[in-house]
Amino acid sequence: MRQGPTSWWTAGPLPDQLDWRPMDELSLGVVALLLLAAFAAGFVDAVVGGGGLVQLPALLLGVPGASPVQILATNKLASICGTATSAATYYRRLRPDPRTFVPMMLLALTGAFVGALGARMIPKEAFTPIVLAALIVVGAYVLLRPDLGERTELRFDGHRHVAAAMAVGFVIGAYDGILGPGTGSFFVIALVGLLGYDFLQASAKAKLANFATNLGALLLFIPTGAVMWKLGLLMGAGNLLGGYLGARTAVARGAGFVRVFFIVVVGAFIVRLGGEVVGVW
User: Fold this and answer.
1) CB atoms inside a 10 Å sphere around CB 208
2) From CA 146, how far away is CA 125, in angstroms rounded?
3) DSSP letters along 219-262, please?
4) Which terminus of the chain is more solvent-facing, meaning fewer CB atoms within 10 Å of its CB: N or C?
């Protein structure tokens, strides 16, 4: 494979997309499994977030010839298709207050851009333990507070509320730029636990903010030529369908369903990542 120009993102030569066409090398079975993973990721992401913990491993297994930066970039392209669809669905049906979500989206995009600049400072072997620890804390917090997120009881008023939403957007956006997995779930729990939204309203605003973080990361990935466009758009179609169905299901079932789904999904992610840390798989 001929090497393209050196990228400031990767601190090394970036594979030239014109020389390697992954769609030509993948079997129909692998493509079908990647589409299924993208659909599942879109559905999970739309309801409670964390779809990257489904889609990213699928890409790593299905496209072993791609570099890490290509995998991350393609994952973001597929994900933004789903987050855009689920965010639009939530917005049409719930009409969240733009005075809150617009500043939060802007700071989330900025945070993702800034976080991505420092992504190389964290060793790769630390990624999984960090995400696992965060998910354990989040899962325990929700599980031990059964009334959490049943109804909206905002903890701040006026400018303080907007400032808190902006801080959530920037901090979690920076996390998405640096690491990424579980970003949607962390947005949901921050909006529920810190700002006082119910789970359904939190999911709506989380999708809007998550769309912004995906966009922020792609603004860095696309100029490097790292995106595998054919595969990313194909998986994006699966993610889009999953995101649409997930958002409609969440709106129809309400905050109680989202809370239960959140606990189940976070529990499953803890088991999967915990098994990876201790070497079970």
Assistant:
1) 25
2) 34
3) HHHHHHT---HHHHHHHHHHHHHHHHHHHHHHHHH-HHHHHHHH
4) C
